[in-house]
Amino acid sequence: MRLLVVEDEKRIADFLERGLKSAGYAVDLAGDGAAALNLVHAADYDLIVLDLMLPDIDGFKLLEKIRDRTAGPPVLILSARGNVDDRVKGLELGADDYVVKPFAFVELLARVRALLRRGQPAPEKLAAGDLALDCVRRRVTRAGETIDLAPKEFAILEYLLRNRGRPLSRTMIVEHVWDMDYDGLTNIVDVYIRHLRSKIDDPWPVKLIHTVRGIGYMLDLPEKPAEPVPER
Q1: What global pTM score does this model have?
Q2: Is 2-119 in CATH node 3.30.565.10?
Q3: What is the pLDDT of residues 48-106, one digit of tens each?
Q4: Which of 57, 39, 150 is nearest to 48 (CA)?
Q5: Are 8 and 51 in contact (CB under 8 A)?
Q6: Rounded CA gap, 221 and 199, in Å?
Q7: b/e string for 16-43 if b means 16 or more Cβ within 10 A?
Q8: CATH class of 125-219
């Protein structure tokens, strides 16, 4: 999932970026309202973390502009402005949650996950055959056996499962999982797919991750061979 953090204080922005990335999210940063609007119009975000005290525009004005879009992502306000009037105004203008600085990152992360679950129409549990992924508990099992995945491995597997049966290009995977553009040279997706296969495919006879030549990768159960027609 891809998040946008709108925060002009670099120390806080870097802290949020590191923490959210370590939790498995792709993160874009915007240091002012103009940059935030450009990013919002250029990409689809799953959630926005918004500071109110920006150098070029009041955060409430920016919130209104974001909410003018027909289908905007959930917005979590993260601000030092913690009085009741500000919190009420933020929620009335369309914010989905409001966290006051200073904050505990573990609480912020819990609120982010709660908003993503609320705004995500897709199921919280995904499966393909005997492979199961619990998006809430971030737990993966195959044939009942627990499989430990690194955050990026989990994010790739979740993306593949949510698009089960659909070929995904390396560009799509990189842009969804990493905060970077695919330059056609990096083999980072292939490396992580090898890691995933070693954990969820190699120990079992039925392989779920398939290479789609000229495109990328797809997760699905293998097609059953057609049964021979009995002779008459």
Answers
A1: 0.57
A2: no
A3: 999 999 999 999 999 998 887 645 789 999 999 989 999 999 999 889 999 999 989 99
A4: 39
A5: yes
A6: 16
A7: bbebbbebbbbbbbbbebebbbebbeee
A8: mainly alpha
